[in-house]
Amino acid sequence: MKSYVKIALFVVVFFAIAGILAALIMFNKKHPDTSKAKPDFVVTAVTLQKEFEDNEKTASARYINKILEVSGTIASVTAADSSHTNLSLKTGSDMSSVICTFPSNSGVKQYKPGDDITLRGECSGYLMDVLLNNCAGVMSRK
């Protein structure tokens, strides 16, 4: 076999192994524990939704991938799937809310629409609703 073929084969194998290792590392990466993390921003659900509605680009740059502590009133609590529960916070808009995703074992199902709460989560964006993932630290303010 010619030397340039051996070198090309070595480079291809090297990048394939590096790609597989990178994928495994990203797949097994732990989510931040938002219950113990210091929030980057403390806001109300109404303010958060309004900032995204008024200027999505600026709000995205400010909040996405940041830990937020959000206060608001529960609009609904629903099971997203067998391992997650979604909690929606009222924002004063009929078209939009703040949706917070919790692990099913977090005890969030005990809360009812109308309860006032404060929670922490990682902002992942805005698609008509502001989305917070990896939520934790629900504190009731009845």
What's the gyration radius in Å?
A: 21 Å
Write down the domain tally: 2
User: What is the CATH first-level class name of the largest domain?
Assistant: Mainly Beta
**Uncertain residue segments:** none
Return the CATH topology of the largest domain.
OB fold (Dihydrolipoamide Acetyltransferase, E2P)
Category from helices, strands and their pairing: alpha/beta
Quick rundown:
The protein is α/β, with parallel strands linked by helices and 142 residues long. The chain has helices spanning 3-27, 45-54, 56-63; strands at residues 41-44, 67-81, 84-89, 98-103, 116-126, 130-140.
Structure description:
The chain has helices at residues 3-27, 45-54, 56-63, and strands spanning 41-44, 67-81, 84-89, 98-103, 116-126, 130-140. With 142 residues, the chain is α/β, with parallel strands linked by helices. It has 2 domains: 1-30; 41-140, Nucleic acid-binding proteins (OB fold (Dihydrolipoamide Acetyltransferase, E2P)), CATH 2.40.50. A 5-stranded mixed beta barrel has the order 2-3-4-6-5. Helix 2 (45-54) packs across helix 3. The model has no long low-confidence stretch (mean pLDDT 86).
